[in-house]
Every structure is written in C-alpha cells, then in structure tokens.
Amino acid sequence: MMRGTLFVFTVMILCASLHGCKDNSPPAAGNQLLTIAVIPKATNHEFWKSIHAGAVKAEQDLDGIKIVWKGPAREDDREQQINVVDNFANAKVDGIVLAPLDDVALVRPVREATAAGVPVVIMDSGLKAAAGEDYVSFVATDNVAGGRKAAQCLGAVLGGKGKVLVMRYQVGSDSTTNREDGFVGAMASEFPEIEIVSSDQYGGATTESCHMKAESLLTRFGGELDGVFCACEPAAFGMLLALRDAGLAGRVKLVTFDPSEKLIEAMAAGEVHGIVLQDPLTMGYLAVKTLVSHIRGESVADRIDTGSEVATPDNMTEPRIAELLRPPIDKYLK
How confident is the model at residue 44 (pLDDT cuts 50, 70, 90)? Predict the structure, then answer.
C-alpha cells in the first residue's frame, strides 16, 4: 500500500510540474505539455526495448509531449500491470499507451481510465473490449497473419511433410494466442501432410519455464519431430536450449517470432530456420503518435497494422530484414 501511494504521489508531482492540474476535456493543441504514460507487458526483453525506443522517437519528433515509461518486470505479473494503469489514471496523465499482458484482466482498469477522462491506446496485444468506446485505437502486428507466415515458412522448410509441435506461450496473451492459432489454421489448410502432434501445452512467461516445458515435450515427442513453432522469443530460446540438450538442434527445424542476439546467432548457425519479425520501433512510435493525435482532436483509425516480415538464413543480411533483426534502439535509448 505504501509503495502504491508513493508511486501515485510521485507521478502526480511529475504531472503537476509539467502542466498543472488537468480536467477531463481534451487540451487545445500546442497549449500545454502532454504527459503520456507508456506501459509495456514487461521491461526485460529486447522487444520492449524497441517499443521504448519508438516511444522516445515519438517524444523527440512530436512537439509538446513527455513520455513516462513504466511496466512490470515480468510478463506474467498481471497485478503489477493493473496497479501501474490504475496509478497513472489516478494521477490524471494526459493519456496511456498500454500493451496488456492479459486480454481480460486489463479490461476493467482500461475502462475506468477512459471513464475518468484518460484516453488509452492499446498496442501489441489485444483486449476484449470495444475500440472507439473503451479505448481509442489498437496499434499492433496482424498476429494471425504472422502465425500464417510462420506456418508457410516451416512448411516450406519441411517440404510439406512431417510432424511438428506448437509450444504455446501463456493463457490470456492475445498476441501470442493469435499467432499460435494462425499457425495451426494455416498448417491444417495449406499443408495436409504435416501433422501437428501437440498444440495445447504452455511454456509460461520466462525462458526458464519454457525450457522446462520444452524438455518435457521433447521427451515425449522428440524422436518423431521434424519441426517446432514458438510464438515469442522467451519460448523460442527455451525450446532452443532444450533442442541443444537433446542433440536435436538443427535437425528439428525451429521457427519463431521476435529476434534476440542469441536467436540471430542460432539462425546463422543453422539452428533456427525462420523468425517472424514485427516492427516494434514503429509500433511504439505510432501508438504514441495516434494517442497524441486523438488528444489534439484529430481523427484516428480504430486499428493500425504495423506489418511483419520473415527472416531466414537466406535473407537475414538483406537491409530491411537486418534492420528488423537489430532495430537501432541505441539511437534513442541513451
């Protein structure tokens, strides 16, 4: 309770020092500094650092805004993220950009923030709420399409035949669920000779938990597997470690979402065969820009797709793919 109270007090002092007390009506363009809270699912992965860099780029490019970056340490800490949203809403920041780590648990705080006159833009992962009513806009990858691209990549690597498994991430994560469902659907419709031997097991929010689950799955299915799909970086790296431990890295083809330096190195070594690349820097940038445009009375789209590409060992040095593999975050995060 004391920590929560202290956080509210600190944010209120910050907001007061920036622009004074705020009423619920949209501010006139250019008349005051806007404080925008940007809340990721967590702060400990490269993906979120790229989102942060995009938000800072927006702060630099757009006149009269100040970014406040805060999120939970882990992607399974729903309660902490809810508290962060509630605290910023109570402090009356001018707006919130949120990547909800649970598509149901974050509905209540988002609705309450909106009702209190604090507009919210959702980014990266969806919310079971109404765009244009409960929140302003949704800025994210089309994750179903991304999952389909992952299936097409793995299907091509396997020559349209074989056995694969899907190790899911965690319950309630809208973005990864859509990727996993997009993958399963595309495999069924486009590659009838590829059998999915398991698609209902969850690795959890950390590399460690994913590694443990991957070991269990490989113990059960490893002898017959030809390919694996994981929907995010922690799951993919946990699976890669388990494949290495089992002597299957490279032989079992691994396709995933989102790069890290270790996964990029593994792709160069032939242990990863495809990485679906989002554009998190652009996502962070457009989420902030969309919210600022709304606050300043401009019309914005309910849904903004930031696109995706697929990196493979054959194209990973091409300029656009190389930039998405290693976004220039150091340019914005000092």
Answer: confident
How many Cα neighbours within 13 Å face the side chain of 314? 3
For the stretch 29-42, pLDDT in tens is 445 899 999 999 99
HEC profile for 261-281?
Answer: HHHHHHHHCCCCCEEEECCHH
The domains located in the chain, with CATH, are 2-141+279-307 (3.40.50.2300), 143-277 (3.40.50.2300)
What one-letter code names the amino acid at 130? Answer: A
CA Rg value for the chain? 21
pLDDT value for 72: 95
Angle, in degrees to the nearest 10, between helices 261-268 and 233-245: 50
Which of these, 257, 276, 36, 290, lies nearest to 139 by C-alpha position?
290
Lowest average pLDDT, out of 1-15, 33-47, 154-168, goes to 1-15
Query: Which two structure tokens, joined as six digits, stand for 104?
Result: 């149901």
Q: pTM for the full model?
A: 0.87
115 contact partners, CB below 8 Å, separation of at least 6 = none
pLDDT of 17 strictly over 60? no
Mean pLDDT of 124-129: 96
Q: At which residue do the structure tokens 């031997």 appear?
A: 197
DSSP string of 166-209, one letter each residue: EEE--TT-HHHHHHHHHHHHHHHHH-TTEEEEEEEEE--SSHHH
